[in-house]
Amino acid sequence: MSSALLLLFTCLTAILSEAFLPPHPSYISCPHLITHRHQSSISTSSLHATSNEGYIQVPRSDGTAHQLAYKIARPMSLTSRQHYPIVALHGGPSVPSQYLYPLEQVVPYRSIVFYDQLGCGKSDEPSNLKYYSTEQSVEDLKVVLKKLGVRKFHLYGQSYGVILAFEYMKHVASNPSSYSDDDDDMKCLSAILSSAPSNVKQVEEEYVRLLVNLQANNEGLSDAKLAQLFRRNHQCRLEEMPTLLADAYANAGKVWRGTDAIKDYVASQPDEDAARMPSSLIMRGEHDFVSEDCAAGWKNAFNTKFLRYKTLEGCSHHGLFENGKMYGDIVDSYFEEYD
C-alpha cells in the first residue's frame, strides 16, 4: 500500500467525521421504522428567544410517513415582504441542523427555517436505506415549505445542504407542472451555496492531496495529531471546536450518512427547456478542503448567468463560526438584493 493510501486509511475517518461525514458500514437488516430521537446537551435558549418548533410528516411511496423536526427563528417575520425568510439546509448527510443556528445571530430581522433532514437530529431515523436519497429529500423539502406556508424565500445550503438546495432548484426549474395552482406564488428568490463540491469524488481526492501535503510538511506527527492539524487548517480554524458544531457531529445519524451515501454525485444542468434557476452565490473559505477547483464545477451546472463566487478570507469550511460577522454580512446583503 502506498504511503498516501495508508495515510488515507488511518486518518480519513477522523477527519471526515468533522467535515462531510465518513462512509458508514451498512448494518441495516430490518425495514421497520426507528422513531429514535438523538438527545443533545446544547442549550439554544440564547439563540432562539423567539421561535416556533414542531414536527411535519413526510410520506414515502410505500405508504409510510416519517416525522421531520423543524424550528423557525423569528416566526412573526415569516410572511414579511421586506425581508423574505431563509430556508437553511444542513450538511452531512445526516449532521443535524443545530450547527446552523448561529445564522440567527448574524443575520438580522429575517425568519430562518431550520429542519433536521430524515435520519438525524430530532427527526425520525428509519432503518431501511430505501427511505433515503437526495431525490426523496427534495420531495421532503417541498412538503416542509408547503406545510409551513413558506411562499417566497431564499435558500441557504451548507456542505451537503448545497447539493440538496441545487437539486431542489433544478427540480423546480425542470418540473413546473408538478406544482398545483395553489403553489403558483411559491418561489425561491435566490440561493447561497456554502462550501460544497459539485463532484464528490473530486473532493475526496482533494482530502488525500491535502493530507499528504500536511504529512510531508510535518514529519513524525501521529495520525491523531495529523487529523487535528487538518481540522484546524481546512475544516474549522478555531483552536477548539465550537460546542454547537461538535455536538452536531456527535449526534449525527447512523443510517444514511457521509460521502459514501452520495459518492457518485456530480451536479449537472437541467434540460434545455427548463426554466432558469435562481441567482446564486457560491461561497467557500480560503483554506477550505472544498478547493477552488472543487467549487468551480458549479458554473457548468447552473443554467443561469447570474452566478457569483466568493472566497472568505482567512476561513475554511465553517466560516459561520470562524468569522460570523463577515459571514452574516455577506449572507444578508446578498439576499437583500433579491428581496
Strand content: 15-25%
Radius of gyration: 19 Å
User: What would the principal axes of the Cα set say about the shape?
Assistant: globular
The count of strands amounts to 8
Major sheet details: 8 strands, mixed
Structural class: alpha/beta
Task: Please state how the strands of the largest beta sheet are arranged side by side.
Answer: 1-2-4-3-5-6-7-8
The termini sit apart by 54 Å
Q: Tell me the helix content.
A: 25-40%
What's the rounded overall pLDDT mean? 86
Low-confidence stretches: 1-10, 22-46
Separate helix tally: 12
How would you spell out the order of helices and strands? HEEEHEHEHEHHHHEHHEHH
Explain what you see:
- The chain has 339 residues and is of the alpha/beta class.
- It contains twelve helices and eight strands.
- An eight-stranded mixed sheet has the order 1-2-4-3-5-6-7-8, with helices on both faces.
- Helix 1 (3-16) crosses helix 6, helix 3 (134-148) packs across helix 4 (160-174) and helix 5 (200-217) packs across helix 6.
Q: How is this fold's topology laid out?
A:
Layout: H1 3-16, E1 51-59, E2 65-73, E3 86-89, H2 103-106, E4 112-115, H3 134-148, E5 152-158, H4 160-174, E6 187-194, H5 200-217, H6 223-235, H7 243-250, H8 258-261, E7 279-285, H9 292-296, H10 298-301, E8 307-312, H11 319-322, H12 324-337
Parallel strand pairs: 3-4, 3-5, 5-6, 6-7, 7-8
Antiparallel strand pairs: 1-2, 2-4
